Every structure is written in structure tokens, then in C-alpha cells.
Amino acid sequence: MKFLKGLPLVLISVFALTLNSCKDDNSDECKVVCGTGEILSADCNCVAVVTDPCDDVTCPDGFVCADGNCVEVATEPTEVSKAGLLTADETWTADKMYILQSKVVVSEGVTLTIEPGTIIKGAKGQGSLATALIVARGGKIMAEGTAEKPIVFTALSDNIEIGQTFGSNLDETVNSEWGGVIILGKAPISPSAGTEAQIEGIPADDTFGAYGGSDAADNSGVFKFVSIRHGGALIGDGNEINGLTLGGVGSGTTIENVEIVGNLDDGIEFFGGAVNVKNALVWGQGDDGYDIDQSFSGTIENSIYIAGADSDHAMEIDGPEGPENTGGLFTIKNCSFKGLNGEFADWRDKAQGTVMDCYFFNFDEAADIELDADATVEANYVAGKIVITGNEFNLAAAVTDFASIFKDTFAGGDDAAFKADMVANNASVTEKSAGKGADASVFGWTFASSKGAIDGF
Predict the structure, then answer these.
(1) pLDDT score of 30 more than 50
(2) DSSP 8-state secondary structure symbol assigned to residue 23
(3) Proportion of the chain above pLDDT 90, given as a percent
(4) pTM
(5) Residue among 305, 119, 101 at smallest CA distance from 227
(6) How many other β-carbons are positioned within 10 Å of the β-carbon of residue 95?
(7) 289 near 313, Cβ under 8 Å?
(8) Alpha carbon 192 to its chain's center
(9) Dihedral angle at the C-alpha atoms of 407, 408, 414, 416, nearest 10 degrees?
């Protein structure tokens, strides 16, 4: 049986069985000869060879072979609409575009996870129809982008596509195309009455708008490498949504590497709370860059402000509104502020806190740092609760008197003493010194960087 050499053992066995079963009395061989496409069975019968009809079929991308035909592969939709309350944990993935059709609320006890590179677009709407992502008190957001794959919140009109970092049709001058992002927590606040409040823009009967409490270390999740663009939809007369609103957010929450571009209202507004923010950037907002209210006690560091044509103050600072939780003292340090037509900072309504080692430049000759005409602001300054020290100002050429940019406007205050104190503890410079202002190198991932807006920092 040398002719069987090299055949698989199973075929050799079947062939041997065929020879033994099909031979006649006078021959060692089966007399049956099979045709094309047939094989000889063990009992000397010819049976058809069973073949896969897709063996010789090649289908294009997105199709598979079934019974010899190419059929399109069924895929999940790449655009997902979202509206209303999220009542169970969800994960939003970078292979889909998420469209906010109304307010989307991460309810108490629910966690929303957003993968790096995910794009979320808000539909246009005003008033009760304004779109926003709201993380309710007791809810949690885990939005951890990366420098290479930031998470982007933007307008539905933005032509950015899945897998991209920037679109091409909108810039920092386009705003109010949708709402913004609101995160609410259980950290102490000082509203006009009590220890809790309802965030602006959310009706009182919508309980997901409540914020404040007694847990300074409350954790609302992680918010890193996130860009929020073209928001600030109108929700009431003179009331717009901020790019990022933080109401009673605790220090257990991580907020780092966050960008706000082209928002109609404030860039980031803090309503009390104790969260620390690092590496934030606000560009081209229509009102204030960093707005502080209700006894905020956290720290803002290594952050940037870039004014737009309609921007107001780089910082607007208010203190506690009521008798509760009045001890909140914030710190803003090592930040850089690039002005245009607006002000450096306005300290108003019981304001208290520290601004130190910051760098201000490109503001016009009318810009000032002002203690507002308020007796409580004056008292806080005299008591050492307002500290403005170690800052550097690269002033407009028209400003020849450094002291003139500092103003104590309270009728019973001592403007001359305030000016002298500010001049002694801050400096007029032509370029910033080492250790002052922000390290702009960490903002290379931002939309602002892609447009050259942080050049010169």
C-alpha cells in the first residue's frame, strides 16, 4: 500500500475500509467510479461532496457572506439621543456621538462614566428647553479624558466628528448654542437662608437642582481633560447657564485640565463648596471668567483666563450670603490673566479670600482691582480676610501710576492706605518673573492652544 503514503490517517482508514467492503469475490478493488464533486462511501456508493457556498466569495468592508451572498453587517447607531433622568449607571463610549436633546440629569446614586475621546453635543434651546448635563447631588460623573483624547462638550452645530478633537466651523466668538455642565454636591455653602439652595435656572420643584450640605469632602467624581464649548443658553431674563457650574462641590471631587470656550455667561462659577481646581482655562466668555459666590473655600491654581471682546471681569468675587458657613476662604494662586476690555477683579458683597502670585497682562488702561462700595468688604479687608499679594501686572502703556489700578470705593474706606498696601505687596513688570502666573505648557491639548490663543503666556 505504498500509494497511500502521505495521506492523513483518517483517510487511510476510510480508504482501507472501502477496499475491504467494495471488492468482489475475485478482486481486491471496488468497481465503482465516482464523478466530479462526489466521493466514494464505505459501502461503495458515490455521495456528493458538501462545500461551503462562501468558500469562493469575497465581500467588501461592512459586509459578510451568508449562503453565498454578501449581506451588510448590522451595526449599532453611532448617534445616541439623551434626555431626562438617568436612573441607572451608564457608560458613554467614544465610538458614538451623544446628543443632549434636553436637560440630562445624573440622578442621586447613579454614576455616569464617559470614555476618553467621547463627544457630547447639546441641541439648541432656551428657557425650559435649554440643554445641559446636570450631575445631581449624590450622583457621580467619571469623565476622565486624556491630553490625546479629551472629552468634548459642544454645540450640535459644531461639525466635529467622532475621532476628532476640534471642528472647523465654530470659534470662541460663537456662544449660547446650548447650555453647559452643572455639578452639584453636598459640601457647605452660604446661601441667603439655611444651608442648602436650588441652583439657578432649575425650577424649585425639580429636586435634582438642590445643592449644599455639611460634607466638605463630598465626592462628585472625576472631571479631567474636558473641553466645554459654545454654551450659555438663556434660561430666564438675564440668566444664562455658565460653562461649568459647581454648586456645593466637595474636595473629594477631582477637577483638573478643564477648558471653557465661548460661553455667553461666566466661564466657571463656584457656589460655595470646597473643590480644588487645577489647570483650568477660560477663553472668550461673555461675562466673568472665574465667578466666586456663597463662601467658596477651595483653591484654583495654575489656571488661565483669556478675555474676549465682550468679557467683563477676570474674577468676580462675592462672599457668604447668609449667616451659615461664613468662614469659607478661597485661594487663587499662580494663574495668568490676559485681558482686553474688561476688569482685573471686583470684590463685592462680603467677599473674602486670597489672590496670590498671579500674572495680569494685556488689560487696557481702564482695568482695575476694586473693593466694592460695601461695608462688609471693607471690614473683611481691614480684618485681613482679603489678601492680594505677590501678583505681577504688565500694564497698558497709558497707565503711568501703578497705584491707580487699585480702588477702595467704600465711602468710609481709606483708598490711599489701600493703594499703598497694594503697591507694597504687588509689582508692576514688563514680563513675568519665575514662579509667577501659570505654566502654560500643560494646556497644549486645548482648543485654545490649537488656535494660538495661549501664545505669549
Answers:
(1) yes
(2) B
(3) 80
(4) 0.85
(5) 119
(6) 11
(7) yes
(8) 30
(9) 0
